[in-house]
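Alpha-L-rhamnosidase six-hairpin glycosidase domain-containing protein
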Amino acid sequence: MRIDSSNEELVAMFEWACDRALRWAHPAGSRGPLDVDERQPSGTGEGVYLPSYWAGYAHRSGFYLRDFVHQLPGAHLLGLDEANLTMLRCFAASATEEHGHRPVWAFNFDGSYLAIDYRGPGAFVREAPAVYELVEAGAVAYRWTGDRAYVDDPVLWDYYRRAVELPPTAMGEGIFDGTATYNEQDGEPLAVAGDGVAARYAAFLAMAELCRARGLDGDDYERRALDLRRHYASEWKGVRGFTRDGTPVTGWGMESSWFPALKRLTADDDLLDHIDAQAGGPGRPHNVEAWTYLPDTFFRHGRPEAAWRWMREIYASREGEHVAGGRNGDYPEVSFTLVSQVVEGLLGVRPHGGAIATEPSLPAGVDWLAVSGIPVGGGSVAVRHEGGTTTLTNLSEHLTYTWTACGLTRRVPPGATLTARRTGTA
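Structure:
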């Protein structure tokens, strides 16, 4: 992909992020160490790597579920589709009956379990939101690629249908027992948390979409999503979780606070204000990984100024020290998510195989933005936005896209350039 913009910082950010993210990729057949971690810096041997990429701490030789699902859109944009499908299948295949149909948390690049996070079938890291995020990731990958494997692969399909039936409740107190939340810092005895419920809501909607792609009726999953949304609206007012005795937990809880907005379970303006104030103030997360969710959260609710401010802060912190050692910029999620936030957030590209919608959302200070070579389905497009005008060029040789912008839907044949203008703009 190539970027051009009126904002030089944005150009530098995107080019840095693309270059840095690709450095974390492993081509199929490359060799490298296994089970490298802070206790075993040299690892336990060598293996032949699958097509994959780093998703987790740079001092551990593997990819993590939570990081992977957040990095997947950026990885697609960078041409890493083979790795995305391979890694998704690793997680899905690990959700065996022995594992309670829950996926293993982390893998070496050869597809074996990463030892530091796996002690045995009854003792491996489990966090409830991840179970559902993997289903959503399959739908996201299908939208971007149109690859039928995400819909038809029996391993993936078996995972999807089982995962959405698992409850979002904690299985125990520690991460090796199975927690209800991604927030590992507070140590609260939550039986159910806002991030788990929100992730399940998104998974129900993803499952409806995946069913329809298979020619099945997805209405039941859509109804279950709407029922969950109604329940959340009536029972979770100001609450981000419940303890095992049913006591509601309020206040700031990082992931359990912002995931309901991130997954569009709620569009509460007061909550969004609270997230911005806390994340930028007294509740600021120590780990840059947590910051990477904030631009996505604000973009999804029409707040480009806040989203861009967090993107700039993340980029500016890249030379800063990471809480686990090394630099923030060496945490792969930083670069991968900045890539996707430019395309999905600022340019507002919404793919669905051979169909594309654009809903650009440029903040003050970015007068215009253009990205060329965005891969969608079996081809690619260029999108440019300035003022109220969006231009799309079909760079494909054989694929015709259906493009929706500014309330109009039109077909864009190979090589064609079309323009859409918002009404009421100069």
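Residues 123 and 426 are 61 Å apart (CA to CA).
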